[in-house]
Amino acid sequence: MTTHIQFSPGDYLAPAVDWLNTNLHGLFKGISQVVETVLGAVEGALLAPHPYLFIGIVVVAAFFFANKRVAVFAAVMLAFCLFAGLWIASIQTIALVSVAVLISVAIAFPLGVLAARVKRVDEALLPILNIMQTVPPWVYLIPAVMLFSLGRVPAIIATIVYGIPPMLRLTTLAFKQLPKDLLELGQASGASPKDILFKIELPTAAPTLLVGLNQCILMSLAMVVLAGLVGAGGLGAEVTRGLSRMEMGLGLRAGLAIVAIALLLDRLSRGALQRHSPSKLP
């Protein structure tokens, strides 16, 4: 007779999750309300203008902050989302990704700078980042759903967590690779640490930081489709609906709209940084 030894992590995690939901319910509810309020405000602001007006605003902003080609590209990508009949879902996705990326960068950037300057922090973060980038993306949704139920809140929290590792890694790499002679020159000239950071370190690290930002955006958009499985709405829900109903047209349009948004955000960020520091970027 063969004896099989089975190990179920759920037997150990379930009591911990129950304890958290019972004793920290108020905290999770408060976080949910804050996330819903912020996300709702961003969505409301983006959906307030007429689609044509919104496209015009983005085109003008792209022309001002980037260049003419990026402005034309933005118009084409947004027009595709509009005429594909997925405007509201596209705006919901843009809002979710924008909020998630901003929070991910706000967490990852200072941690990356700290890790580049403090070896112990870098050594402590390295195994954590290795694990985070090895775990499949849908696994992040499981604890988020357990703690925050279904909806947009677990989706955006999972997206934030999923987007942190690439930005953190590349921020650390960018500041580790800074030429020491430039830093010594800044110190010798009497520049303050603030001036060195904003006038020497950030411009020099801009290309690598840009790669980290792009990776963070792409990771966040990759989570969008999975987020549709937990009721996050947006284009992810349209992809899920197309798959579940075997509607190839809907699934294809939603998938192409996600690609369009990914390209749009990538070109906008790249174009803006190229315009402000063209000699620093590839």
Automatic annotation (TrEMBL):
Membrane-spanning intervals of the chain: 46-65, 70-88, 94-116, 137-164, 217-236, 248-265
Domain of life: Bacteria
UniProt xrefs under PROSITE patterns: ABC_TM1 (PS50928)
InterPro entries from the UniProt entry: MetI-like (IPR000515)
Membrane topology: Multi-pass membrane protein
Localization per record: Cell membrane; Membrane
Key word Membrane present: yes
Keywords from the UniProt entry: Cell membrane, Membrane, Transmembrane, Transmembrane helix, Transport
ABC transmembrane type-1 domain sequence ranges: 90-269
A Pfam family the protein falls into: BPD_transp_1
UniProt keyword Ligase, yes or no: no
Similarity annotation: Belongs to the binding-protein-dependent transport system permease family.
Full protein name: ABC transporter permease subunit
Organism of derivation: Pseudomonas farris
